[in-house]
Amino acid sequence: MAGVYISYPFCAQKCTYCNFASGVFPRALEAGYLDGLRNELGKTEWVWTPETVYLGGGTPSLIDPAALADLLVAIPGSPWQEATMEAAPGGITTELASTWRNTGINRVSLGVQSFNTRELARTGRKHTAEVVEREVAILRAAGIDNFNVDLIAGLPGQTLESWDDSLDWVERLQSPHVSVYMLEVDEDSRLGSEILAFGKRYGAPDIPSDDQIADFYEIAVDRLARAGIPRYEISNFARPGFESRHNLKYWRREPYLGFGADAHSFDGKWRWQNPESIEEYLRGSKPERTRADAAAEPFFLGLRLDRGIDRGIDADWSAFQPAVERFIREGLLESSGNILRLTRRGVLLSNEVFAEFI
User: Fold this and answer.
1) pLDDT for position 309
2) Where residue 135 falls among pLDDT bands split at 50, 70, 90?
3) Residue 56 to residues 121, 139, 284: CA-CA distances in angstroms?
4) pLDDT band at residue 207, thresholds of 50, 70 and 90?
5) What is the DSSP string of 268-324?
């Protein structure tokens, strides 16, 4: 079944590590953007009924409740099996959580990143561990028991002790879903640009080494598994039954429609992407369609899942047999019957594996 993604690229502040097409924009532009989303949703011919909705960003939790209701009412299928709102801790109130629940939101993804106050301050985030704890209680009281906690391994000044403390908080909150991302260093974020330039701003000199970041990730894999939150995708961990139904569509190559700036869509055969900039999106620029690579995509998407891919059902291995055999010899892939999956070492070097199939 299909899903819907809504991009809301507006934030209260731009975090140093963020490499998404989001940021702080004029209020007038925000109003025009909401009109653009309503227009795009309103002219959509729904050939199927969505079962999941995901509002990402940016910080979609900043959307005015009345405007949010206008957007969601235009999407068929309510109540959806899963409707996720990304939210920045520090602004969730009892009234807001109740409004979300009444409009169909039944899952919230919290951009926590760290429970360490010093680490958070250096990224530009203003919440504390206690704020997150309070707002999780608010969500649960509003009937939203399904929530995710984002963590980043590799923040400036992060240590084994502070990482363990963040994982302690995850267990204390009994989070049903956790996402663990290793810090991405590229020119699309302020922190990444500073690291690449060997600069000193944003705590760039205090970034943990690649080996330390890998250790943090491996520690999270083991600790979360012991806590009953096993990994089901490279960056995602969940208690049984709490896996993200929407995000699984991406890795399983199920159809979804994206609305808003930089939003992606896939109908099973074709892929297309809306313009990245808000201004170009509002001008109505048409995205170009490209045919999906049905042979290669199962490898660099499906192999992200812990279950791996099934020969003949998910993918035909024959076209990539030499690469598959080489990665098996190198200990990055393992094969059992018809199943091919990343090894534990292969997960850490997954980009090298995926590059062979892109």
Assistant:
1) 95
2) very high
3) 23, 18, 21
4) confident
5) SSEEEE--SSHHHHHTTPPPPPEE--TTTHHHHTGGGBTT-EEBTTTB--GGGHHHH
The angle subtended at Cα 103 by Cα 170 and Cα 241, nearest 5°, is 40
- 293-358 placed in CATH 1.25.40: no
Q: Which residues contact 10 (CB under 8 A, 6 or more apart)?
A: 22, 23, 24, 25, 30, 33, 57, 58, 59, 62
Element (H, E) at 258: strand 256-259
Given a cut of 90, whether residue 123 has pLDDT beyond it is no
- According to DSSP, the residues that pair with 231 across neighbouring strands are 237
Every domain of the chain and the residues it spans: 3-250, 293-358
CA-based nearest residue to 133, from 85, 95, 168, 98: 168
3-250 is a CATH 3.20.20.70 domain: yes
In the structure, what pLDDT confidence band is assigned to residue 24 with cuts at 50, 70 and 90? low
Please provide the average confidence, as pLDDT, over all residues in the chain: 91
Give residue 209's identity as a one-letter amino acid code.
S
Angle formed by the axes of helices 27-42 and 65-73, to 10°?
20
Which residues lie below 8 Å from residue 304, measured CB to CB, with a gap of 6+? 233, 234, 251, 350
Torsion of CA 277, 262, 132, 169, to 10 degrees: -130
With contact defined as beta carbons under 8 Å apart, do 84 and 108 qualify? yes
